[in-house]
Amino acid sequence: MFSKSKINEPGHKADDTSKPAMPEPSKPAAGDYKPAATPKAKPPASVLSADLHVTGNIKTTGDIQVEGTVEGDIRAHLLTIGESATIKGEVVADDVVVNGRIVGRVRGLKVRLTATARVEGDIIHKTIAIESGAHFEGSVQRQDDPLNGGKRPAQPAPQAPAAAPAGNG
After folding, report:
1. Model confidence pLDDT, tens digit, residues 83-104
2. Using CB atoms within 10 A of its CB, is residue 124 exposed (0-12), middle (13-18) or buried (19+)?
């Protein structure tokens, strides 16, 4: 292990060998870093304002609040569709709160249609709440894992028996 020499410090006399060097306070080594015990605060939701028109897909692990228009698919953790918002595409999120209009499929663990919601498309959910006054045209399907499109893990196809040779000899 290396130690810091006092030779280059200001105020050091070269012939001051009578006093033993004071050990420096121990500093944690680079590998000994421990993060603070308090977790980071959750960042606020990204807001797409009412005057914003997005053409294309949006994907985030965070939260989104849409007040404008999106023509494309949206994937997020928490997705809130504002009253003035229109989404034309598939919506996939852990939590989906719809106050505005969606034309397309909705997939979420928790889906909530408020009284001002207008959804034209299928809803695939684990839990759903539809308030009185919500407008909904489509089918509703409950799945344990709606975020993965209800796809089960791929299993190998059963092997077909090999065909017997055509000739009998």
Report:
1. 999 999 999 999 999 999 999 9
2. buried
Closest CA to 62 of 44, 87, 88: 44
Give the other-Cβ count within 10 Å of 86's Cβ. 17
User: Left if phi > 0, otherwise alpha if psi is -120 to 50, otherwise beta: which for 168?
Assistant: alpha
Nearby residues of 153 by Cβ (< 8 Å), 6 or more positions away: none
Q: Is-above-0.70 flag for pTM? A: no
* Token pair belonging to 82: 């504002």
DSSP secondary structure, 64-119, as one string:
EEE-SEEES-EEEEEEEE-TT-EEES-EEEEEEEESSEEES-EEEEEEEE-TT-EE
**101, two tokens:** 């209009």
